[in-house]
Amino acid sequence: MSLRDFLERFRPAGTPGASTAGVPADRAAERAAELEPALARLTRAQREADRIRAEADEAARAVREDAAREAARLVAAAREQAPEVRRRTAEPLLARARHEADAVRAAGDSAAAAVRARAAERMPELVERAVADALRLPGGSEGQVELAGTGRPRGLEELEGLSRSDEPGGPGGAS
To answer: What single DSSP character describes residue 175?
Structure first.
């Protein structure tokens, strides 16, 4: 299309003033004839785009379904493996806790052994003091106590012998 033909479109059908005999230009027909091939190609392109969109929608639906199945499979596998993973994860923590518990138990045993050793060291002196305090009764002499009902005083050595014989399994005790 030349520039002249293009500009001819904008010219009025007739000049103002006296009318001339002639056929006015059919601008609508000209436009339709000019646009029809382009619109036909556009219609084909729209149909092709619709077909491509439909195929893409179908492919996307298939991909989503495949992804959903794969996700479900992965979740099922993860749930199946979860107890073993938890157990393996907890092993080092449990081992460390057991080690710490053993260390606390050993420290407690050591402290208890120290208390027992200190008690074993101090027990004879404390027993001796307790017996000495018990023998210091009003009216009696130190280190001497009168046995009830006998009127005889006994010394510390005799009392220790009596207390040993009162123990179960001892010389004067019940077995």
So the answer is: -
* Segment 45-99, tens digit of pLDDT: 899 999 999 999 999 999 999 999 999 999 999 999 999 999 999 999 999 999 9
**CA angle (148 as vertex; 125, 167 as ends), nearest 5:** 50
172 contacts: CB under 8 Å, gap ≥ 6: 162, 165, 166
Distance CA 151, CA 153 (A): 7
Characterize 153-166 residue by residue with b for buried, 16 or more Cβ atoms within 10 angstroms of its Cβ, and e for exposed: ebebeebeeeeeee
Helix (H, G, I), strand (E, B) or coil at 46: helix
β-pair type (153-155, 144-146): antiparallel
Please give the full DSSP string across 126-163, using - where no structure is assigned: HHHHHHHHHH--TTS-TTEEEPTTT--EEEHHHHHHHH
Distance CA 5, CA 12 (A): 14
Residue pair 169/175 in contact (Cβ under 8 Å)? The answer is yes
